[in-house]
Amino acid sequence: MQTVNPEVTTEVLQAFADAWNRHDVDALMSFMTPDCVFEASAGAEACGTRYVGGAAVRAAFAEVWAVFPDAHWGSARHFVHGDRGVSEWTFTGTRTDGARVEVQGCDLFTFRAGKILLKNSYRKNRPPAAAAAAAAAAAPPR
């Protein structure tokens, strides 16, 4: 008997992106394998902070909205090839300290059995708007 391996499509990746914009951690986790891994775009390790397993990944995803209550991923573009995929996006959000962030980024995915096994995130390193404006104001005139 042959086992059917469901395929992840660009529509699935868009539904995943839509769940991020709804701040819906239950929906996000429904796209992930039970043994999923999330490699964040920042952290002390070369791969960023690495979260392993459903509980750790769920907590890391929820933490994004705690830091950026208005987090939004716009201008999403996706592609899938076999068991790999990419989503490109522009992230906007306001930190709880009032600093505004707008950066481009992408997620590299590895799929298994129609679910996301690995979400590896990358984003541009750009200072928050408030910090950039303050630095410009404090700079000596030229």
Task: Kindly describe this structure.
The protein is α+β, with helices and mostly antiparallel strands and 142 residues long. The chain has one domain (10-138): Roll (Nuclear Transport Factor 2, Chain: A), CATH 3.10.450. It is built from 4 helices and 6 strands. It has helices at residues 10-22, 25-30, 54-67, 129-138, and strands spanning 32-39, 50-52, 72-81, 84-94, 100-112, 115-123. A 6-stranded mixed sheet has the order 2-1-6-5-4-3. A hairpin with a 2-residue loop joins strand 5 and strand 6 (115-123). The chain is globular, with a radius of gyration of 17 Å. The N and C termini lie far apart (75 Å). 17% of the residues are buried.
Characteristic key phrases:
6-stranded mixed beta sheet; 4 helices; 142 residues; 6 strands; single chain; alpha+beta; Nuclear Transport Factor 2, Chain: A
